[in-house]
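Can anyone check this?
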Amino acid sequence: MARNLDMTALRSFVAVADSGGVTRAAGYLNLTQSAVSMQLKRLEESLDARLLDRSARKIALTAAGEQLLSYARRMLDLNDEAYARLTAQEFEGEIVLGVPHDIVYPSIPYVLQQFHVNYPRMRVTLVSSFTTQLQEKFARGECDMILTTEDRVGSGGETLCELPLVWIGAIGGNAWRQRPLRLAFEHRCIFRKGVQQALDGAGIPWEMAIESDQSRTIEASVSADLGVHAMLNGAAPPYCEPIQHGGALPELASKMVNLYISDLLKGQAAENLADLIRGAYDKRASTALAAQ
């Protein structure tokens, strides 16, 4: 009897282990949640072992799962290397992709990974910055393709999805209960003005307690429960979570995720990268709607 591990199931297993949940893994892989769950079930049945502990708030690996994860990563790496060496060798070059800090995760890493499998000799240089800075770089020709978060789509742009802004705080934190409300935002974050207006409209006093040019500084401060932030649904960084405020904070607006591609960027590889991005954000939008 053949004893073969399913590579597709292993890829889903690694995605769940890395992301901490089936929902995010499904978004990474551009699959449905039920498809990922079924693959995990088949993998566990084939090994006659429980790989995931689903009893906790966040999915964790069992001892058998931890052992398999090491093998799975090596097997996938070897599979992808073999595939890359034997396909798409004729494509070479570089694409500069600009993505705002707050939407790099969870979609972009898997987009880059899949594109590398498809076009191993193409290099994608990822530039992460604020939307306004990316627009400036794109206008100067320093980026070939950019994603933005905006209230509307500009000339030549394409709206991939529309996602709601949500309040973000420390896991189990209480900063959102304080008045005045302590806000933590980057200086050039385009969300901060709308957040301030929403609070003013709700009659909630606030103060800009933490400001920085660095997103990591804001994330660290929020995770320490020193203030609250606002991000697109599904983009909460580690050690932070959406605030379940029960109406104590105002609802926030939605933002468009838009794609802009330079007229000078042509070819099959560029089209494939754009399609991967479209698919990732279409899946992300579907996940956000299902969670509402």
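Reply from J.R.: I decoded it. The longest helix spans residues 63-86.
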